[in-house]
Write a structure and sequence with these properties.
With 226 residues, this protein is of the alpha/beta class. The protein is 36% helix and 24% strand. It has two domains: 118 residues, NAD(P)-binding Rossmann-like Domain (Rossmann fold, 3-Layer(aba) Sandwich); 100 residues, 2-Layer Sandwich (Dihydrodipicolinate Reductase, domain 2), CATH 3.30.360.10. It is built from eight helices and ten strands. It is globular and about 55 Å long. This is Dehydrogenase and related proteins.
Length: 226
């Protein structure tokens, strides 16, 4: 049994806890939040959970794994600290904001002999393996991958607020929030493209509300919608 901690108190963390407990291999032990009342409200449905508002003390807690579901831009520094503390990290998608951040996390994980995972379920599913196998002897002429959803945070944005998911400061936007699903599916099935491009409908403050991209392979083009 592995004891795990949670960073980030949104609904997705509750869903992760439920799945982790159902597996029979994990037990929630600790929750971190900047505010004690937030951690307490989040944890009230669970028993025997330690609450932390000090990051250093949380990293010293008796836990083996940390699930990170904070705003996107915080993932890198938090995951780096977790790995350096000798704990495994499961980071919500997108794990990082840049390729350079990913390389740093991989290096820290290797140095501390711990695992680093991205919580992006779709490319671990059997369906992708089946599709890849089916396409092995097929001639691919192109493809299209899309995922569109009305954001639950849109009412806040329309009311003049700035939810993290629409903030450039927190690595938000359509491509980072929903586009990763289509990118992971396309690249997981077809492999790494030769190059890529992306054109977005941008809001006045620079974030992409939606967009269209292309993955350029040697003999075909794959279209991405976010």
């Amino acid at each position: 049994m592995l004891n795990f901690g949670i960073v980030g108190t949104s609904d997705i963390s509750h869903r992760f806890i439920e799945a982790a407990h159902l597996s029979g291999h994990y037990q929630l032990q600790a929750v971190f939040s900047r505010r004690l009342e937030t951690a307490a409200a989040f944890s009230e449905q669970y028993e025997g959970v330690d609450l932390y508002t000090e990051w250093v003390k949380f990293l010293s807690a008796p836990i083996d794994v940390v699930y990170i579901a904070s705003p996107n831009a915080l993932h890198f520094e938090q995951a780096k600290a977790v790995l350096a503390a000798g704990k495994h990290a499961i980071v919500e998608k997108p794990m990082v904001s840049t390729p350079q951040e990913l390389e740093q996390l991989r290096r820290v994980a290797q140095e501390n002999n711990v695992f680093l995972f991205e919580a992006a379920r779709n490319y671990h599913e059997q369906a992708q393996a089946i599709i890849r196998e089916f396409l092995t002897d097929k001639t691919i002429l192109g493809g299209s991958f899309g995922y569109a959803k009305y954001s639950s945070k849109m009412p806040e944005l329309l009311a003049g607020q700035m939810p993290n998911i629409f903030s450039t400061d927190f690595s938000g936007g359509a491509l980072m929030d929903f586009g990763v699903y289509t990118l992971y599916a396309a690249i997981g099935i077809l492999g790494t493209p030769r190059t890529a491009r992306y054109v977005a409908q941008q809001l006045p403050f620079g974030i992409d509300l939606n967009g269209s991209g292309q993955l350029i392979y040697d003999n075909y083009i794959v279209h991405i919608q976010a």
